[in-house]
Amino acid sequence: MVAGDAEERLGGLFLRLAKTAHVLQRRGVGDFGLTPAQARALSVLGRCEAPPRMTELAARLHVVPRAVTPIVDALENAGLLRREVDPDNRRSTLLELTDDGRKMCRRLIEFRARAAGELFAPLTDEQRNTLLELLEKVDQESPALRPAHDHPTTPR
């Protein structure tokens, strides 16, 4: 197999699996009463070491800041997060998960694990471990592809 052929096959396979994963996710998060965008925002917030500002959440979600407002409004109305005034900059708002928000994050993690189990069910345990090792290697050795704001927020 020529290297270009392998890359073409990988590209096609990557897109098909991404679509399948997206369909599984979309189907499941609706059962939690969340939109996919709200679930993504909660997942990002759940990985933050310290409450981020609204602009930081927008950057992590790769959206413009004004697109985060309706997502945050819905999550706040659902009791999953609260806005707090940033004590270091009173013009900024910090986003903090509530206890219910942290519980929902755990439920989403469990759901994603089940969805991954469904997606990779055709593989043996050994094949899954090998795939995991390979994907972790690609992830770890591709920092240039990962925006700096995808790293956890450091405490202020």
Question: Would you write up a description of this structure?
Answer:
The chain has six helices and two strands, in the order ααααββαα. A hairpin with a 2-residue loop joins strand 1 and strand 2 (89-97). It has helices spanning 3-30, 36-46, 54-61, 65-77, 99-119, 125-140; strands at 81-86, 89-97. The protein has 156 residues and is mainly alpha-helical. Strands 1-2 form a two-stranded antiparallel sheet. The longest helix has 28 residues, at 3-30.
Which radius of gyration do the C-alpha atoms yield? Answer: 18 Å
What is the averaged pLDDT score?
A: 86
Which H/E pattern describes the elements? HHHHEEHH
Instruction: Please mark out the parts with pLDDT under 50 across 5 or more consecutive residues, or reply none.
Output: 148-156
Give me the number of helical elements. 6
Shape: elongated
- The helix content is 55-70%
Q: Could you tell me the number of beta strands?
A: 2
Category from helices, strands and their pairing: mainly alpha
The main sheet orders its strands as: 1-2
Topology overview:
Blueprint: H1 3-30, H2 36-46, H3 54-61, H4 65-77, E1 81-86, E2 89-97, H5 99-119, H6 125-140
Antiparallel strand pairs: 1-2
Helix pairs in contact: 1-5, 2-4, 2-5, 3-4
Please provide a brief summary of the model:
This protein is mainly alpha-helical and 156 residues long. The protein contains six helices and two strands.
